[in-house]
Design brief:
Strand content: 15-25%
Helix content: 40-55%
Structural class: alpha+beta
Number of strands: 9
Order of helices and strands: HHHHHEEHEHEEHEEEHEHHH
Strand order of the largest sheet: 1-4-5-9-8-7-6
Shape: rod-shaped
Distance between the termini: 79 Å
Bound molecules: phenylalanine
Radius of gyration: 41 Å
Largest sheet: 7 strands, mixed
Length: 344
């Protein structure tokens, strides 16, 4: 027994552990129910009184030494594991933030603005809450003219002789540009517009436009056609063709709607272009002399063209979005799919 006690004392003195698991294993091996020291105590119980006197004290010392050593190791490994814990390493990089992406309408607006900037156009913005004069009257919509029904208007105040309204197109900004800018004028007007329409996959009461205006001496329909063709090729690819169909707007004469060749099926016919090979992208025309005169521009000396397009529609064609409502619902599964050319 003496030897056994001494051996175990030596073992306890040299006990080492690097983590909590090893400490627990040592505790079980020495002091557990079937541990070596526990076994010695069992042997001790059956010893005669002389041996008990001889070994009792030693055995107790062994147990105390083992318990103290285990406690010491436990404290040590706990302290080092806290220090080593990754949570405590202040030099670790932080949790990364998920980066947002740009909204598809904003990407398309920037592309259009960049193209027209190259052509020498300035960008102009104006108020979303407008008066009747800038949205209708100055654009050759006389009071009660049926053409006002083309654009269902939200009125901000009613029963007022000159009610305020939410602009139905950014042509109002073109009027403000004609009032304030020096001739010749080359300007594009991006912005949000509002129409009283039932919300569906193909219509919304809020959408975005970019409209453009060019006024100078001797501007002709050929200039308009060339500007639209160059724009379409920059926007949809160098092989893009355009087609102009006669149309009507109160503020332009003659007026036209413009289609581009379908860049999905390249004219063969698909469900995006509904089998026609063409996609409608904008309205345009030569500025009506009445509109020039209303803003104090001499229509005998100057002429100009104007055009306007819906950004949601262009984005729909670009990415084959099948429901307008996606643009306004802020669903991250939709929004995170769009990348600008520089991000791809
Ligand atoms: N303002 C027209 C619209 O909102 C678009 C347009 C602009 C058409 C300029 C012709 C010339 O639909």
């Amino acid at each position: 027994m003496k030897e056994a006690i001494e051996q175990l004392l030596a073992q306890v003195a040299s006990l080492k552990a690097t983590n909590a698991k090893e400490v627990e294993e040592a505790r079980v091996r020495l002091l557990g129910k079937k541990g070596e020291i526990t076994k010695l105590f069992e042997e001790f119980r059956s010893c005669g009184p002389e041996l008990k006197r001889e070994f009792g004290k030693k055995l107790n010392e062994l147990k105390q030494a083992a318990t103290a050593k285990i406690d010491e190791l436990k404290n040590m490994t706990e302290a080092t594991s806290v220090a080593d814990s990754p949570k405590q390493d202040l030099s670790m990089p932080g949790t990364p933030f998920a980066l947002g992406s740009r909204h598809p309408v904003s990407i398309v607006r920037q592309e259009i603005v960049d193209i027209f900037r190259k052509f020498g156009y300035d960008v102009a913005e104006g108020p979303e809450i407008e008066d009747d004069y800038h949205v209708f009257e100055a654009l050759n919509f006389p009071p009660n003219h049926p053409a006002r029904d083309m654009q269902d208007t939200f009125f901000v105040s009613t029963g007022h002789p000159n009610p305020l309204l939410l602009r139905t197109h950014t042509s109002s900004v073109q009027v403000r540009s004609m009032e304030t800018m020096k001739l010749p004028i080359r300007v594009i007007c991006p912005g949000r517009v509002f129409r009283n329409e039932a919300i569906s996959a193909r219509a919304h009461c809020i959408f975005h436009q970019v409209e453009g205006l060019y006024i100078d001496e001797n501007v002709t329909f050929a200039d308009l056609k060339q500007a639209i063709l160059l724009f379409a090729r920059e926007m949809f690819g160098p092989d893009t063709a355009i087609r102009m169909r006669p149309s009507y707007f109160p503020f332009t004469e003659p007026s036209s709607e413009v289609d581009v060749s379908c860049n999905i099926c390249h004219g063969k016919g698909c469900n995006i272009c509904k089998g026609t090979g063409w996609l409608e992208i904008l309205g345009c025309g030569m500025v009506d002399p009445n509109v020039l005169e209303a803003s104090g521009i001499d229509s005998k000396k100057y002429s100009g063209f104007a055009f306007g397009m819906g950004l949601e529609r262009i984005a729909m064609l670009k990415w084959q979005v099948n429901d307008l409502r996606h643009y306004f619902e802020n669903d991250l599964r939709f929004l995170s799919q769009f990348k600008t050319a520089t991000e791809v």
